[in-house]
Specification:
The complex is a heterodimer. By secondary structure, chain A is α+β, with helices and mostly antiparallel strands. Chain A is built from eleven helices and ten strands. The model of chain A has no long low-confidence stretch (mean pLDDT 92). The longest helix of chain B is centred in the middle third of the chain and has 36 residues. By secondary structure, chain B is α+β, with helices and mostly antiparallel strands. The chains are: A alpha+beta, B alpha+beta. Chain B: GO terms for molecular function: acyl-CoA dehydrogenase activity; flavin adenine dinucleotide binding. Chain B: It comes from Polymorphobacter multimanifer.
Chain lengths: 402, 376
């Protein structure tokens, strides 16, 4: 056991730092630090830079376009990008459907879909939740009926409603869980379909969340025709893909490196904010909360490192990743609580960006502008990806055998 | 960066775990407790001769296994798992750690005796007024010719009733709370002028109040330089604190696993209580605390030889202390009535975990120390 970086690791870290310094788009500087809402274009600018370098998918196997980095190098990558306040790329293609396709897809499907994910030319969204299927995801009702078309080929006709679909308004394609066998047990009649969001019958309607953002949507599917070759893995075996994807999603969800950067930011704010003639950070109650957060974050970081070491020795992400999801999201939420608390009065003004060229001067300090919306928005983290209560059910059943 | 144990370390872990599982049953432990001795000399001898673990963190030149902090972590986690009474912590980790830190003739002489199981060291550092502050000392060692004269009172010196040596912190100059002027002595426990009031501790161990009255010490009892002992004491206590965190990990793993087994067997309302979600989630939360305690203990252990030592150790002890309380209390709660009886092992694990929570500093103490080191 050893915590130190090898000379090769240090050289790699220097290389990563140089790439971020020289190639991170200048127009994106400051956007994360100030908590600005990000546009699709913002994400794409950084995505394209990394895609051109071949650095877009560090977690993928090299044969499918991964970087071939080892787990230490991937750790360095996430640390350094977080430290530099670089945008975190959208997970739907790179972290979610991509691994499902290269793990369960046919050679033809891999050739068809993976390049667009890597290049950023195709944006994905996730069609899982439904109005009646949230935590009880296997209760989903969206149905896909199989038929033979006039051209003699096989198709599904898809009808139903999905909800909480993040970024569906920008997505070119979506991956959907649909019911292909209504007669079998809930988890056994589900299939994993890739659907072109421009297909006739797909309607996307915005849902505005507590911070005023348009991130999530309702997606209506009305007689949407989907060729059978857009189904990943076997018919009625979609739950296998769904579980695999959720376990993958949960490890990334811990967000350790970003939270470490978030703590630094709050410390800086608490040094400048005044409280009774002293910096806020000297307030023993606030200081204790920062200390607790930092200590919990260190415990989470080393839990993640232990998990990564386990994965490196051949264990894939398993139900233990639920632990990372629970603790990671709790910490992310506590960070936003502290940021709002630190802002004091200036958590209250409702700030709206009027876009480029907005000359109106800001109210309060820059860092306070989005602390309340961010706090409101981040309540989502303990709900999405399987709520933290569902994660506890998973650990109870899969790890503890209850 | 590497998180895997070496083959030798894996073997050490397996060997200790198997040996304790075979020989150190709960009943055998309770015999030592009920004897009033609070330990078993024959077990200690077996640790030295059959198991050979007393040399785990010492150089091969001294007859040790050539290990260090990680080996101590491995052994201490197993000691926690089996709730071992015998003084590996005070003798090997603390006494041995101090000797390794100062080196010289006394280290050459005593380390082989530790490995052989002949030297048993108790750490006399706490004082009634000092709480967890290592430098708050009223015990004095006054220079007298070549040697020293020791006077004072040390509190709750674990293993003192049967120790061959006492590792004593004392002020050789300066005021009660000065950082300078503190010295460390390793002395035979039977010197004239040493008196003890022996008692059992609530977890079944043995300890003493130790009184020094004009105890004459030779120059060779001083470890390191006179008046410059505090950095060594802090280092040794940080190493001991990390080791105690590892012991806690072993205790908590057992508390969590025992509670899980019980919840699967105990029936109420016609089904195992583990079928109830309210119990399931409580046990999951115990599991989460244990895993994080293990993680942060690993962090602290791996940082013992770095500039971040003190910060990392306080982070770990604060986190592990909280986990010890949460897991211990919930283990008793989920066991229900039987959890508060003295019959089951679970209650004894809870008692030991409770003492570990306060050992070398409470949660509050380590939060405050972390804040001073890392935030102020």
């Amino acid at each position: 056991m050893d915590l130190s970086f090898s000379p090769e690791d240090l050289a790699f870290r220097d290389e990563v730092r140089a790439v971020i310094r020289d190639e991170y788009p200048t127009e994106l500087h400051g956007k994360i630090d100030e908590g600005e809402e990000l546009s699709k274009d913002d994400f794409l600018k950084w995505h394209k830079v990394l895609a051109a370098k071949g650095w877009i998918a560090p977690a993928w196997p090299k044969q499918y376009g991964g970087t071939g980095w080892n787990s230490v190098q991937r750790y360095i990558w996430s640390e350094e990008t977080a430290r530099a306040d670089a945008i975190r790329l959208m997970p739907f293609g790179l972290s979610m459907v991509g691994p499902v396709i290269y793990t369960f897809g046919t050679e033809e499907q891999k050739a068809r879909f993976l390049p667009g994910i890597l290049s950023g030319d195709v944006w994905w969204c996730q069609g899982y939740s439904e109005p009646g299927a949230g935590s009880d995801l296997a209760n989903l009702r969206t149905k896909a009926e199989r038929f033979t078309g006039e051209d003699g080929k096989e198709y599904y006709r898809v009808n139903g409603q999905k909800t909480w679909t993040t970024m569906a308004q920008h997505a070119d394609w979506g991956f959907f869980l649909v019911r292909t066998d209504p007669a079998s047990k809930p988890q056994e009649g589900i299939s994993f379909l890739l659907i072109d969001m421009n297909s006739p019958g797909v309607t996307v309607r915005p849902i505005i969340t507590l911070g005023g953002e348009h991130e999530v949507n309702e997606v209506w599917l009305e007689d949407v025709i989907v060729p059978v070759d857009q189904r990943i893995y076997d018919e009625n075996k979609g739950w296998t893909c769904a579980k695999f994807l959720l376990a993958h999603e949960r490890t990334g969800i811990a967000g350790v490196a970003a939270s470490k950067r978030g703590v630094e930011r709050i410390r800086a704010v608490a040094k400048s904010e005044q409280d009774g003639g002293q910096p806020l950070i000297a307030n023993p109650f606030f200081k204790r909360k920062i200390a607790e957060l930092e200590i919990d974050l260190a415990a989470l970081e080393f839990t993640e490192l232990r998990t990564l070491a386990g994965e490196a020795s051949g264990k894939g992400p398993g139900p233990e990743s639920s632990l990372l999801k629970i603790k990671g999201t709790e910490i992310q939420q506590r960070l936003t609580e502290l940021a709002l608390e630190a802002a004091g009065h200036y958590g209250a003004p409702y700030f709206r960006s009027f876009g480029e060229g907005d000359n109106e001067s800001a109210i309060g300090p820059d860092y306070s502008r989005r602390v309340a919306p961010t706090y409101f928005n981040m309540r989502k983290t303990s709900i999405y990806g399987g709520s933290n209560e569902i994660q506890r059910n998973i650990i109870a059943k899969m790890v503890l055998g209850l | 960066m590497d998180f895997n144990l070496t083959d030798e370390q894996t073997m050490l872990k397996d060997t200790v775990q198997r040996y304790l599982a075979d020989t150190y049953s709960f009943d055998a432990r309770m015999k030592s407790v009920h004897s009033g001795a609070g330990w078993s000399p024959s077990v200690w001898k077996a640790f030295a001769e059959e198991l050979g673990i007393l040399g785990a963190p010492f150089a091969e030149a001294h007859g040790g296994l050539g290990g260090g902090a990680i080996e101590n972590m491995i052994v201490m986690e197993e000691i926690g798992r089996a709730m071992v009474l015998e003084p590996y912590l005070s003798t090997v980790v603390i006494g041995g750690g101090a000797l390794k830190a100062v080196g010289g003739a006394i280290a050459e002489a005593v380390i082989p005796e530790i490995i052989a199981g002949n030297a048993i060291i108790a750490f006399a550092y706490a004082e009634p007024q000092g709480r967890y502050h290592l430098h708050d000392l009223t015990t004095t060692a006054r220079a007298d010719g070549e040697g020293w004269v020791l006077n004072g009172h040390k509190s709750v010196v674990t293993s003192a009733p049967y120790a061959t040596h006492l590792l004593v912190t004392a002020r050789t100059s300066g005021a009660q709370r000065d950082a300078g002027g503190i010295s460390l002595f390793l002395i035979p426990s039977g010197l004239a002028g040493i008196t003890r009031r022996d008692y059992m501790t609530v977890d079944g161990g043995a300890a003493s109040e130790v009184y020094f009255e004009n105890v004459a010490l030779g120059a060779d009892h001083l470890l390191g330089r006179a008046g410059e002992g505090l950095p060594i004491i802090e280092q040794v206590v940080d190493e001991a604190t990390a080791a105690v965190c590892a012991e806690a990990c072993g205790l908590l793993r057992v508390l969590q696993a025992t509670t899980l087994d019980y919840a699967k067997q105990r029936k109420q309302f016609g089904k195992p209580i583990g079928d109830f979600q309210v119990i399931q989630h409580r046990i999951v939360d115990m599991f989460l605390e244990v895993e994080q305690a293990v993680s942060i203990t690993l962090m602290a252990t791996l940082k013992l030889d770095t500039a971040e030592r003190a910060t990392a150790v306080s982070m770990a002890k604060a986190k592990v202390g909280k986990a010890a309380k949460f897991v211990g209390q919930n283990a008793v709660q989920i066991h229900g009535g039987i959890g508060i009886s003295n019959e089951l092992a679970v209650g004894h694990y809870f008692k030991r975990a409770t003492l570990v929570e306060g050992l070398f500093g409470s949660v509050d103490h380590h939060f405050a120390r972390y804040e001073t080191l890392a935030i102020d």
